[in-house]
Amino acid sequence: MKYLVFLLTLMFAIKGPLKAQSAANPWTEKQLMAPGALAERITKGQGNNVMILAVGPDAVIKGSVNAGPAHEAAHLDQLKNLLKTTPKNKEIIIYCGCCPFDRCPNIRPAFKTITDMGFKNVRLLNLEKNIKTNWLDKNYPTND
Amino acid sequence: MGKLLGILLISILATNTFAQNTVLKAGQTAPEIRLPDSKGDTVSLASLKSGLVLIDFWASWCAPCVEEQPQLKALYKKFAASVREGKFEIVGVSLDKEKSNWQQMVARLKISWTQLSDLKFWRSPVAKDYGIGELPFNVLVDGQKKILAINIHGKELEDFIQQYLAAGNAVN
Protein backbone atom coordinates (compact mmCIF):
# COMPACT_ATOMS: atom_id res chain seq x y z
CA MET A 1 0.00 0.00 0.00
CA LYS A 2 2.88 2.34 0.80
CA TYR A 3 4.21 1.54 -2.64
CA LEU A 4 0.89 2.51 -4.22
CA VAL A 5 0.85 5.82 -2.37
CA PHE A 6 4.40 6.45 -3.52
CA LEU A 7 3.46 5.67 -7.12
CA LEU A 8 0.42 7.91 -7.00
CA THR A 9 2.53 10.72 -5.56
CA LEU A 10 5.10 10.19 -8.27
CA MET A 11 2.43 10.18 -10.95
CA PHE A 12 0.92 13.36 -9.57
CA ALA A 13 4.36 14.97 -9.48
CA ILE A 14 4.99 14.07 -13.11
CA LYS A 15 1.54 14.97 -14.37
CA GLY A 16 1.25 18.06 -12.21
CA PRO A 17 3.34 20.41 -14.33
CA LEU A 18 1.60 19.23 -17.51
CA LYS A 19 -1.76 20.03 -16.03
CA ALA A 20 -0.56 23.42 -14.91
CA GLN A 21 0.62 24.10 -18.44
CA SER A 22 -2.66 23.07 -20.06
CA ALA A 23 -4.50 25.38 -17.67
CA ALA A 24 -2.51 28.23 -19.18
CA ASN A 25 -3.55 27.40 -22.74
CA PRO A 26 -5.59 30.13 -24.45
CA TRP A 27 -8.18 27.60 -25.64
CA THR A 28 -10.74 25.55 -23.75
CA GLU A 29 -11.48 21.85 -24.19
CA LYS A 30 -14.62 22.82 -26.11
CA GLN A 31 -12.51 24.78 -28.58
CA LEU A 32 -10.60 21.68 -29.64
CA MET A 33 -11.83 20.01 -32.83
CA ALA A 34 -11.29 16.34 -33.63
CA PRO A 35 -9.33 15.83 -36.89
CA GLY A 36 -11.79 13.15 -38.03
CA ALA A 37 -14.71 15.59 -37.71
CA LEU A 38 -12.98 18.17 -39.91
CA ALA A 39 -11.94 15.53 -42.44
CA GLU A 40 -15.56 14.39 -42.69
CA ARG A 41 -16.79 17.92 -43.31
CA ILE A 42 -14.21 18.47 -46.05
CA THR A 43 -14.97 15.12 -47.66
CA LYS A 44 -18.68 15.88 -47.66
CA GLY A 45 -18.01 19.24 -49.32
CA GLN A 46 -19.06 21.15 -46.22
CA GLY A 47 -15.68 22.79 -45.74
CA ASN A 48 -16.48 25.95 -47.69
CA ASN A 49 -18.13 27.87 -44.86
CA VAL A 50 -15.14 27.47 -42.60
CA MET A 51 -11.74 29.15 -42.80
CA ILE A 52 -8.93 26.68 -42.16
CA LEU A 53 -5.63 28.33 -41.30
CA ALA A 54 -2.22 26.62 -41.16
CA VAL A 55 0.05 28.30 -38.62
CA GLY A 56 2.87 25.76 -38.76
CA PRO A 57 5.04 23.90 -41.27
CA ASP A 58 2.67 23.71 -44.22
CA ALA A 59 -0.93 24.04 -45.41
CA VAL A 60 -1.39 20.28 -45.67
CA ILE A 61 -5.15 20.13 -45.09
CA LYS A 62 -7.37 20.50 -48.15
CA GLY A 63 -8.70 24.01 -48.50
CA SER A 64 -6.46 25.44 -45.80
CA VAL A 65 -4.54 28.69 -46.19
CA ASN A 66 -0.92 29.01 -45.08
CA ALA A 67 -0.14 31.83 -42.65
CA GLY A 68 3.33 30.48 -41.81
CA PRO A 69 4.75 29.41 -38.44
CA ALA A 70 3.14 31.78 -35.94
CA HIS A 71 6.10 31.94 -33.54
CA GLU A 72 7.61 34.51 -35.92
CA ALA A 73 6.27 38.07 -35.74
CA ALA A 74 6.23 38.41 -39.53
CA HIS A 75 3.92 35.41 -39.81
CA LEU A 76 1.62 36.75 -37.10
CA ASP A 77 1.31 39.94 -39.20
CA GLN A 78 0.55 37.75 -42.19
CA LEU A 79 -2.13 36.02 -40.16
CA LYS A 80 -3.70 39.36 -39.19
CA ASN A 81 -3.63 40.44 -42.82
CA LEU A 82 -5.35 37.26 -43.93
CA LEU A 83 -8.18 37.94 -41.48
CA LYS A 84 -8.42 41.70 -42.04
CA THR A 85 -11.71 41.61 -43.94
CA THR A 86 -13.08 38.40 -42.43
CA PRO A 87 -16.38 38.79 -40.50
CA LYS A 88 -15.87 38.29 -36.76
CA ASN A 89 -18.46 35.53 -36.57
CA LYS A 90 -16.74 33.42 -39.27
CA GLU A 91 -15.90 29.89 -38.20
CA ILE A 92 -12.10 29.61 -38.07
CA ILE A 93 -10.11 26.45 -37.45
CA ILE A 94 -6.36 26.70 -36.93
CA TYR A 95 -3.79 23.93 -36.94
CA CYS A 96 -0.04 23.47 -36.77
CA GLY A 97 0.91 19.80 -36.49
CA CYS A 98 4.66 20.27 -36.07
CA CYS A 99 4.68 18.41 -32.79
CA PRO A 100 2.57 17.71 -29.68
CA PHE A 101 0.90 20.81 -28.17
CA ASP A 102 3.26 21.01 -25.20
CA ARG A 103 6.21 21.49 -27.55
CA CYS A 104 4.52 23.61 -30.25
CA PRO A 105 5.65 27.25 -30.46
CA ASN A 106 2.93 28.25 -32.95
CA ILE A 107 -0.57 27.44 -31.75
CA ARG A 108 -0.61 29.66 -28.66
CA PRO A 109 0.43 32.95 -30.35
CA ALA A 110 -1.85 32.18 -33.30
CA PHE A 111 -4.90 31.34 -31.17
CA LYS A 112 -4.38 34.35 -28.94
CA THR A 113 -3.90 36.73 -31.87
CA ILE A 114 -7.10 35.57 -33.54
CA THR A 115 -9.23 35.73 -30.41
CA ASP A 116 -7.71 39.13 -29.50
CA MET A 117 -8.86 40.36 -32.92
CA GLY A 118 -12.39 39.67 -31.75
CA PHE A 119 -13.19 36.44 -33.59
CA LYS A 120 -15.86 34.55 -31.70
CA ASN A 121 -15.87 31.16 -33.40
CA VAL A 122 -12.27 29.93 -33.31
CA ARG A 123 -11.20 26.36 -32.79
CA LEU A 124 -7.90 24.49 -32.68
CA LEU A 125 -7.56 21.24 -34.56
CA ASN A 126 -6.62 18.58 -32.05
CA LEU A 127 -3.56 17.11 -33.78
CA GLU A 128 -2.31 15.38 -30.66
CA LYS A 129 0.96 14.08 -32.06
CA ASN A 130 1.52 15.78 -35.41
CA ILE A 131 0.13 16.35 -38.91
CA LYS A 132 1.66 13.10 -40.10
CA THR A 133 0.15 10.73 -37.56
CA ASN A 134 -3.16 12.51 -37.05
CA TRP A 135 -3.87 13.56 -40.66
CA LEU A 136 -1.60 12.24 -43.45
CA ASP A 137 -1.42 8.67 -42.13
CA LYS A 138 -5.22 8.59 -41.94
CA ASN A 139 -5.46 9.57 -45.61
CA TYR A 140 -7.59 12.60 -44.78
CA PRO A 141 -7.98 15.13 -47.65
CA THR A 142 -4.92 17.24 -48.50
CA ASN A 143 -4.07 20.22 -50.68
CA ASP A 144 -1.63 18.30 -52.90
CA MET B 1 -3.57 -4.91 -6.87
CA GLY B 2 -0.50 -5.94 -8.83
CA LYS B 3 -2.37 -5.27 -12.04
CA LEU B 4 -3.28 -1.79 -10.86
CA LEU B 5 0.33 -1.05 -10.01
CA GLY B 6 1.35 -2.31 -13.44
CA ILE B 7 -1.12 -0.03 -15.17
CA LEU B 8 0.05 2.93 -13.11
CA LEU B 9 3.68 2.19 -13.92
CA ILE B 10 2.98 1.82 -17.62
CA SER B 11 1.03 5.07 -17.73
CA ILE B 12 3.94 6.88 -16.08
CA LEU B 13 6.56 5.37 -18.35
CA ALA B 14 4.54 5.74 -21.54
CA THR B 15 4.46 9.49 -21.23
CA ASN B 16 8.14 9.80 -20.57
CA THR B 17 9.88 7.67 -23.16
CA PHE B 18 10.37 8.03 -26.90
CA ALA B 19 7.99 6.03 -29.03
CA GLN B 20 9.36 2.70 -30.18
CA ASN B 21 10.42 2.51 -33.80
CA THR B 22 8.72 -0.44 -35.46
CA VAL B 23 10.72 -0.40 -38.73
CA LEU B 24 14.34 -0.27 -37.62
CA LYS B 25 16.32 -2.57 -35.38
CA ALA B 26 19.86 -2.27 -34.10
CA GLY B 27 22.16 -4.58 -36.08
CA GLN B 28 20.27 -4.16 -39.35
CA THR B 29 21.81 -2.35 -42.30
CA ALA B 30 20.37 1.16 -42.42
CA PRO B 31 18.09 1.85 -45.41
CA GLU B 32 20.02 3.65 -48.15
CA ILE B 33 19.53 7.40 -48.34
CA ARG B 34 20.05 9.21 -51.65
CA LEU B 35 19.09 12.85 -51.36
CA PRO B 36 20.18 16.21 -52.75
CA ASP B 37 22.45 18.43 -50.67
CA SER B 38 22.02 22.20 -50.54
CA LYS B 39 23.70 22.56 -53.95
CA GLY B 40 21.44 19.95 -55.51
CA ASP B 41 24.13 17.25 -55.75
CA THR B 42 22.89 13.81 -54.76
CA VAL B 43 24.65 12.33 -51.73
CA SER B 44 24.19 8.74 -50.60
CA LEU B 45 24.59 7.28 -47.15
CA ALA B 46 26.82 4.59 -48.70
CA SER B 47 29.23 7.26 -49.88
CA LEU B 48 29.88 8.53 -46.34
CA LYS B 49 33.08 6.86 -45.23
CA SER B 50 33.21 7.73 -41.54
CA GLY B 51 33.42 4.94 -38.99
CA LEU B 52 30.50 6.37 -37.01
CA VAL B 53 27.73 8.44 -38.59
CA LEU B 54 24.94 10.22 -36.76
CA ILE B 55 21.97 10.64 -39.09
CA ASP B 56 19.93 13.50 -37.66
CA PHE B 57 16.39 13.79 -39.02
CA TRP B 58 15.06 17.27 -38.43
CA ALA B 59 13.28 20.23 -40.05
CA SER B 60 13.39 24.00 -39.71
CA TRP B 61 9.70 23.91 -38.71
CA CYS B 62 10.36 21.48 -35.84
CA ALA B 63 11.06 23.56 -32.73
CA PRO B 64 12.49 20.69 -30.64
CA CYS B 65 14.85 19.81 -33.53
CA VAL B 66 16.08 23.38 -33.84
CA GLU B 67 16.61 23.46 -30.07
CA GLU B 68 18.75 20.32 -30.33
CA GLN B 69 21.10 21.69 -33.00
CA PRO B 70 23.39 23.63 -30.60
CA GLN B 71 23.90 20.36 -28.66
CA LEU B 72 24.85 18.59 -31.87
CA LYS B 73 27.20 21.44 -32.72
CA ALA B 74 28.83 21.01 -29.31
CA LEU B 75 29.28 17.29 -30.02
CA TYR B 76 30.73 18.05 -33.43
CA LYS B 77 33.21 20.38 -31.78
CA LYS B 78 34.02 18.00 -28.94
CA PHE B 79 34.77 15.17 -31.36
CA ALA B 80 36.38 17.39 -34.02
CA ALA B 81 39.59 15.34 -33.99
CA SER B 82 37.61 12.18 -34.82
CA VAL B 83 35.80 14.08 -37.58
CA ARG B 84 39.15 15.06 -39.09
CA GLU B 85 40.38 11.46 -38.87
CA GLY B 86 37.29 10.17 -40.68
CA LYS B 87 36.00 8.39 -37.58
CA PHE B 88 32.89 10.45 -36.89
CA GLU B 89 30.47 12.44 -38.99
CA ILE B 90 27.00 13.94 -38.71
CA VAL B 91 24.58 14.16 -41.60
CA GLY B 92 21.41 16.20 -41.35
CA VAL B 93 18.34 14.95 -43.22
CA SER B 94 15.63 17.58 -43.29
CA LEU B 95 11.90 17.03 -43.78
CA ASP B 96 11.48 20.63 -44.82
CA LYS B 97 9.24 21.67 -47.65
CA GLU B 98 10.54 25.13 -48.54
CA LYS B 99 14.15 25.31 -49.68
CA SER B 100 14.53 28.87 -48.37
CA ASN B 101 13.31 27.93 -44.87
CA TRP B 102 15.69 24.99 -44.79
CA GLN B 103 18.75 26.86 -46.00
CA GLN B 104 18.10 29.97 -43.91
CA MET B 105 17.86 27.84 -40.78
CA VAL B 106 21.10 26.00 -41.61
CA ALA B 107 22.80 29.38 -42.11
CA ARG B 108 21.29 30.84 -38.93
CA LEU B 109 22.40 27.85 -36.85
CA LYS B 110 25.82 27.85 -38.58
CA ILE B 111 25.75 24.09 -39.09
CA SER B 112 28.78 22.84 -41.00
CA TRP B 113 28.00 19.15 -41.54
CA THR B 114 26.34 17.78 -44.68
CA GLN B 115 22.66 18.66 -45.03
CA LEU B 116 20.32 16.71 -47.26
CA SER B 117 16.66 17.16 -48.22
CA ASP B 118 14.31 16.33 -51.07
CA LEU B 119 11.97 19.06 -49.73
CA LYS B 120 9.05 16.62 -49.68
CA PHE B 121 8.02 17.20 -46.06
CA TRP B 122 6.48 14.06 -44.52
CA ARG B 123 6.11 12.58 -48.00
CA SER B 124 9.87 12.11 -48.32
CA PRO B 125 10.60 8.39 -48.84
CA VAL B 126 13.15 8.49 -46.00
CA ALA B 127 10.35 9.13 -43.50
CA LYS B 128 8.77 5.83 -44.52
CA ASP B 129 12.05 3.92 -44.95
CA TYR B 130 13.12 4.85 -41.43
CA GLY B 131 9.63 4.56 -39.89
CA ILE B 132 9.77 8.10 -38.56
CA GLY B 133 6.64 9.05 -36.65
CA GLU B 134 7.86 12.31 -35.18
CA LEU B 135 10.83 14.64 -35.15
CA PRO B 136 13.50 14.91 -33.89
CA PHE B 137 14.68 11.43 -34.75
CA ASN B 138 18.14 10.01 -35.25
CA VAL B 139 20.07 6.86 -36.07
CA LEU B 140 23.71 6.02 -35.44
CA VAL B 141 25.42 3.73 -37.96
CA ASP B 142 28.89 2.24 -38.20
CA GLY B 143 31.24 2.29 -41.23
CA GLN B 144 29.33 -0.61 -42.79
CA LYS B 145 26.07 1.30 -42.24
CA LYS B 146 24.91 -1.16 -39.60
CA ILE B 147 22.50 0.44 -37.15
CA LEU B 148 24.11 0.89 -33.73
CA ALA B 149 21.48 2.96 -31.92
CA ILE B 150 18.06 4.44 -32.65
CA ASN B 151 16.74 7.78 -31.43
CA ILE B 152 19.01 8.58 -28.53
CA HIS B 153 19.49 12.16 -27.43
CA GLY B 154 21.26 14.41 -24.94
CA LYS B 155 23.68 12.81 -22.50
CA GLU B 156 22.87 9.31 -23.73
CA LEU B 157 23.89 10.30 -27.27
CA GLU B 158 27.08 11.99 -26.12
CA ASP B 159 28.07 9.04 -23.93
CA PHE B 160 27.41 6.60 -26.75
CA ILE B 161 29.64 8.50 -29.21
CA GLN B 162 32.32 8.99 -26.56
CA GLN B 163 32.43 5.30 -25.67
CA TYR B 164 32.26 4.10 -29.26
CA LEU B 165 35.16 6.31 -30.34
CA ALA B 166 37.19 5.54 -27.20
CA ALA B 167 36.82 1.80 -27.78
CA GLY B 168 38.42 2.24 -31.20
CA ASN B 169 35.36 0.80 -32.94
CA ALA B 170 35.06 3.61 -35.47
CA VAL B 171 36.86 2.07 -38.42
CA ASN B 172 35.70 2.87 -41.92
Any key phrases for this structure?
heterodimer; A: 144 residues; alpha/beta; Oxidized Rhodanese, domain 1; 5-stranded parallel beta sheet; 5 helices; globular; B: 172 residues; Glutaredoxin; 5-stranded mixed beta sheet; two-stranded antiparallel sheet; 6 helices; 7 strands; 37% helix
What does this structure look like?
The complex is a heterodimer of chains A (144) and B (172). With 144 residues, chain A is of the alpha/beta class. Chain A has one domain: Rhodanese-like domain (Oxidized Rhodanese, domain 1, 3-Layer(aba) Sandwich). In chain A, 38% of the residues lie in helices and 12% in strands. Chain A is built from 5 helices and 5 strands. Chain A has helices at residues 2-23, 35-43, 73-82, 107-116, 131-134, and strands spanning 32-33, 50-54, 65-66, 91-95, 122-125. A 5-stranded parallel beta sheet of chain A has the order 1-5-4-2-3. The radius of gyration of chain A is 17 Å and the shape is globular. Chain B has helices spanning 2-14, 63-78, 80-84, 99-109, 125-129, 154-166, and strands at residues 34-36, 42-44, 52-58, 88-94, 114-116, 137-142, 147-150. Chain B starts with a helix and ends in a 6-residue tail after the last helix. Helices cover 37% and strands 19% of the residues of chain B. In chain B, a hairpin with a 5-residue loop joins β1 (34-36) and β2. Chain B is built from 6 helices and 7 strands, in the order αβββααβαβαββα. Chain B is an alpha/beta fold and 172 residues long. Chain B has one domain (28-166): Glutaredoxin, CATH 3.40.30. Chains A and B meet through α1 and α5 of A and α1 of B.
